[in-house]
Amino acid sequence: MLAPAVFLFFMLLSLSAVAAGRTAAPGLVPVKQTPTMDGIALPLLSFSSDQGFGYGAVGGMYLYGEGKAPYAHALSAQVFFTARGAMNHYLRYDGPQLLGPLRLEGRLEYRQEKSSPFFGAGNLSAPDFRGDVDDQKYNYDKGSPGLWVRLRGRPFGEKHPFQSYVGYGWRYTRVSPYETSILAQEKPIGIEGGPSGQILAGALWDTRDEESDPTSGGVEEVALRVSGLATFSRYQYAGVTLSERRYIRITPRLVFAQRLTLDMLFGEVPFFEWMTTGGVNVSEGIGGMSSVRGIERNRFAGNVKAFSNSELRFQAARMSVFGQPLALGAVVFLDLGRVWHPGVTDGKWHEWHPGIGGGLRFSRRAAVVRMDYARSTETGRQRFYITFGHMF
C-alpha cells in the first residue's frame, strides 16, 4: 500500500510545480519562480484492526501568497468508507489571514460507524476484552453529522506570541446500541443521542519557529467549551483543556518534541463526549492515532483524560523530486495515557497505558504526510496509521 501512495505524492508535487511555473520562450533563460500552490492527493486503500478494510481518497491544497504565512489558504477533503460500515467524509478550510489579522477555520463533516467502540468508563474498563474489536459487546451504531467554525487572532500584533479564539461547534449524534453491548447494559447519559452544540473559546502562547513542522519553541493552550440550551444542545456540560507542546532542536537534523494534554469535563456529560478533547487541535481517546498510538481507538474514556506524547524526529534527507524540494524524516515515539471517571475504580495513580513505535515523514513546505507503526506494551497488539500532518 505504501509504494503507490508515496508515488502519487511525488507525482502531485511535480504537478504543483508545473501549474505554478512559467515556460520561457525559446532562446531565453528561464526565470526561477517559487510555486504558488502545493497539491497532494492519496488513495486510501488500507486495513487496520480498528476499522477493517477501507477505501477512499484524501487530498489537500495549499495556496501561497506574498506576506501570508504559513500559507494564504488551505483546503482539504476526504471521502472514506470501510468494510465495517464506517464513513468519514469532511471538507475543511483554513485562511490564516483571511479577515485582516483574523484567521478563519471551519469544517463540515459526516461520520457514520456501525461499530463505534465503547468499552465503558474509567481507566480499568472492560478487563475481559481480548482484542476482538468486531465483538458487538464493545460496539454500537452511531451516526453524527457536524460542523465547526472558529475565528483566531493576535490582539497584540502579528509577531506577538499571544493568540485567542472564539467559535461554535454543533453535532447531532444518533445512538443505536446493540442488545448485548456494554452500552445497552450500562445506559449512561447520552444513550438517547441528540444535538450537542458548543461555544468554544481559548488562548494560546505560541513561540514555535514554524507552525506546520516546528523545530524550536512551543505552544501553551487553555481551551473552554460550554454546552447548554442556548447553544442548541440537549445536554448541559462544560469542558476545560490544558495543553503544552514543546520542541527542542538537539542537532541540525534531530528534534525532540513533547506534548502534554489534560482534559476535564463537568456536568451532564454525554458518554460520546468522554472520548474527545477541546482545543485548536481536537484529539480523541485514550487510544488511537491522535492520543495513544498502539492502543485500540477510544479504548479508555472518562470525564478526565490525560496523555503524554514524546517524539524524537530525525530529518534523514533532503532531496529534489521533479525539481521540487522534499524532506524525508523518521520518528520514534512513546505515548502514555490514562483517564479518571466518577463512580468507577480507576486504579493506582501510576497505572498509565503506554504505546511505542516509529514512523516516516514526507514533507514539502506546509504539507506533511505521516506514516506510523505502533505497539501496545501492555497487550502486544499493533496498529498502523497513515494521515496528514504531525500528531502535534
UniProtKB/TrEMBL annotation:
One of its GO terms (molecular function) is protein transmembrane transporter activity. Gene3D superfamilies: membrane protein fhac: a member of the omp85/tpsb transporter family (2.40.160.50). One of its GO terms (cellular component) is outer membrane. Residues 101-392 form the Bacterial surface antigen (D15) domain. It is found in: Membrane. This is Bacterial surface antigen (D15) domain-containing protein. PANTHER family: OUTER MEMBRANE TRANSPORTER CDIB, SLR1661 PROTEIN. NCBIfam families: Omp85_fam (NF047779). Its main location: membrane. Keywords: Membrane, Signal. The keyword Transmembrane does not apply. Residues 1-19 form the signal peptide. One of its GO terms (biological process) is protein secretion by the type V secretion system.
